[in-house]
Write a sequence for this structure.
């Protein structure tokens, strides 16, 4: 086993979240002790881009930036569906850092009813995803994809756009829909919340290990509800995958890290 295989890659986390501002060094240290060798730090809006780039420079070869515009945006303390204007402001910054990033994300669709005022909102989300998929194709980067309450529409749109490299993070759809993504060669990352999610457990049963990556989505989707999640909890996800698949923890670590390095071709350990 090569040196690059002896550790975990957290393929999707929000390490730039203010939840980590006070004790980031400790959080990073604990994740290294738990065997994490790399974190893919995802953005939700352009206001985070510089912070993520700065963190990647502060922890070189450990934090890898992933910039993109999420389908749900925060505004004055409330959440709303993304608009094409949100993307307009982000594109120049994205372009500026194109040499530094390992993926475009977090992008995708979120059809949770409370965020959607009308069908126009769904169409705006699709357009924002389409345009970011074009950027990813142009830069030869994968997409790091959110698909809450929109598993099938997301996978169908990615197929329609000819996307070949995508990570579906914390996929909440049916295993049969996920398997359509597997046929496209997409990867699916599993968070520690699998220990309390029947849906994620069913998903892992059906997914081939060759299409599974690990993530924490820190500070969300931890082993316990309402408790801050951290990258060190990647072990919880790995151990559960190993149990469900009936393979050793070592095998899960090796395969998921191999999958992540194949997907994020700019991620160098």
């Amino acid at each position: 086993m090569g040196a690059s295989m002896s550790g975990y890659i957290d393929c999707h986390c929000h390490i730039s979240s203010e939840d980590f501002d006070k004790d980031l060094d400790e959080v990073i240290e604990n994740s290294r002790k738990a065997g994490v060798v790399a974190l893919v730090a995802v953005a939700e809006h352009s206001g985070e881009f510089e912070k993520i780039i700065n963190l990647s420079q502060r922890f070189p070869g450990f934090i890898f930036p992933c910039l993109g515009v999420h389908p749900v945006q925060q505004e004055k303390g409330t959440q709303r569906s993304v608009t094409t204007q949100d993307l307009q402001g982000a594109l120049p910054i994205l372009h500026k850092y194109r040499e530094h990033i390992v993926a475009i994300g977090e992008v995708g669709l979120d059809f949770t009813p409370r965020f959607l005022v009308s069908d126009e909102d769904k169409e705006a989300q699709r357009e924002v995803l389409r345009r970011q998929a074009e950027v990813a194709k142009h830069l030869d980067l994968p997409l790091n994809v959110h698909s809450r309450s929109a598993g099938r529409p997301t996978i169908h749109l990615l197929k329609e756009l000819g996307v070949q490299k995508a990570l579906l993070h914390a996929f909440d759809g049916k295993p049969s829909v996920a398997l359509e993504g597997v046929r496209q060669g997409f990867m699916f990352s599993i968070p520690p919340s699998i220990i309390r999610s029947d849906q994620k457990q069913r998903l892992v049963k059906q997914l081939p290990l060759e299409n599974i990556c690990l993530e924490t989505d820190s500070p969300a989707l931890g082993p316990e509800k309402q408790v801050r999640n951290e990258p060190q909890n990647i072990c919880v996800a790995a151990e559960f995958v190993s149990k469900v698949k009936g393979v050793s923890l070592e095998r899960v670590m090796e395969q998921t890290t191999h999958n992540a390095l194949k997907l994020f071709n700019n991620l160098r350990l």
Remarks:
- The first strand starts at residue 8 and ends at 13.
- The chain has a mean pLDDT of 96.
- The radius of gyration is 17 Å.
- The first helix runs from residue 24 to 33.
